[in-house]
Prior knowledge:
This is CopG-like ribbon-helix-helix domain-containing protein. The chain is mostly helical. It contains three helices and no strands. The radius of gyration is 13 Å and the shape is globular.
Amino acid sequence: xxxxxxxxLDPKVYDALAKWAADDLxxxxxxxxxxxxxxxxxxxxxxREEERRETQGEDV
Length: 60
């Protein structure tokens, strides 16, 4: 189950994310999750279980 939380963004940041998400055919929420997951992987901070689930095509 995914964790829900409130995220407050500057309107310009949200607008840029919304445009990027639309370009990638994703929702804004999915775009944020994609970017955070990518950043965590690149920083070596994604927990092993999450990496394994993602490579198997399951929702994170």
